[in-house]
Fold:
Amino acid sequence: MPSLAGLFFWMNKKTENINKITVTKPLKLDCGKTIKDFPLAYETYGKFNKNKDNAILVFHALTGDQFVAGTNPVTKKEGWWVSAVGPGKAIDTDKYFVICANVIGGCMGSWGPSDLNKDTNHPYGLDFPVITIKDIVRAQESLLDHLGIEKLLCATGGSMGGMQLLQFCATFPNKTFSAIPIACSASHSAQNIALNELARQAIMADPVWDKGKYFLKNTQPKNGLSVARMVGHISYLSEQGMQEKFGRKLQEKADYEFSFNADFQVESYLRHQGSSFVERFDANSILYITRAMDYFDLTKQFKGGLTEAFKNQKTKFLVISFSSDWLYTTKENKDIVIALNSSGADVSYSEIVTDKGHDSFLVNEPEFLKTLKGFLDSMYEKFKR
Amino acid sequence: MKKEFKVIADLLPNNTRVLDVGCGDGALMGFLVKEKNIEVRGLELNQDNVQECIYKGLPVIQGNAETELYQFPKQSFDYVVLSQTLQAFYQPDKVLRELLRIGKSVVVSIPNFGYWKVRTSLLLFGKMPITKTLPNTWFNTPNLHMCTIKDLFNYCESQNIAIKKVIGVNEDKISLIKKSNLEMKNLFSKLGVFLIG
Structure:
């Protein structure tokens, strides 16, 4: 029986060279379903040292993947966090052993809606179970065992990566010596749920989506997915940053065309971001991962509130927010700090002043990178055996 | 380390939990961790100072003491330290109450506006005093509510805040201040360090 999953154009690009483990331990998902024997794709950078004290786990954001640094072997583009991770960088891979796993629900080798459902011999599509951030995090636990890591030096992540990190610390207390949640939230806000809903509705409104069954026609709802990505990109920038970058500049033309073509540079930018995204990401994955983000609410999970979630933490935290980030605001990040303080945890907090918006953690923002490096190196001095 | 910090450090027993409000670059916190095995936390507004603390591995929260002390739970520290900043707040009385809520005891130091050089500057020259502990001119000073050792002493008494110890600092010399010698010490101390609460 030929694998129908292999029909997909974006899947054809995947190589067998992606590192994967099969998680055999049964995992009971929050929705009630139990899964086992599912693939988890990951990548590592640097070397795990003899003392086993230099491992750093990175959690990726919504549209990220395990290819943090160097060149992504599938897309042939730079890893999503090359600004911070690599030889000589803030997270120095000459010194540290960096690990990142693709989230379940994703489309870069871990178990996701584009994988083959053995019951139907089709890709899962909407038969894929609705997953949560907690499921995503628990699915990654086996990877640490597989790599022989008892305790991490540090775990970090921005945006949805930060949310996974908070969940990781709450679910597996003291599994990491230090933690750096960046530009995230302990419970997804109404505004963020609304923006995610906008992205989902854009995908679902595309007739090609066909209730998630586009795989039968070997295609993908490009228009809808592209609009979903545009929404995202607007939310990652700040008003000021966007004005400075694009202003009212026209795209390679002297005057208006009096048409609906991309006259403005900002339009052209968004269209480009949208169309290049559809080449590398599965529409159903966006539905599932954004849903997981929306369901994320540590306060609800721990009935005593956020303070309860971080009870008995020995992990040393550094929370970082960006002044112009309106997606995961300073206020939301401070709420995490307050909860950590209330539980008596060891917590530092820094607000980086920048106009680069939510994207600040992904771009070259010197103050941020300096803070990241300073904290990490001081933690290593304390942790190294 | 400056004399004032040594005086403050001597007031803090080993192995306690201390919040340093306005911790600057972490000089005092670093000393307390190393020499007294004290568990420290800092609160600091300036980003460069925050980074400096982070480099040193000292836990610090970037924030404004005037508005953000609410985040620390009641009686969550053995001691809260506030060094020469009380006079710079819009509402020093409110901040002081917050410090007393957070800490079982509070160490607060103030530049003494009752110091004789400060008094004579105003009395003889009719000008706002500029000294080592008050280096700014009237138009750019961060100090909004200058007070004397006597003022703070009287304030604590009026608010029924227990005064456990008051130390006058003048360069390298320190002396114990009591109600009986308050007038003299208020004249000859550059700084006052209060242990209250």
Remarks:
- Residues 193-288 of chain A form a domain with the Rna Polymerase Sigma Factor; Chain: A fold (CATH 1.10.1740.110).
- Residues 1-7 of chain A have pLDDT under 50 and may be disordered.
- Chain A is about 35% helix and 15% strand.
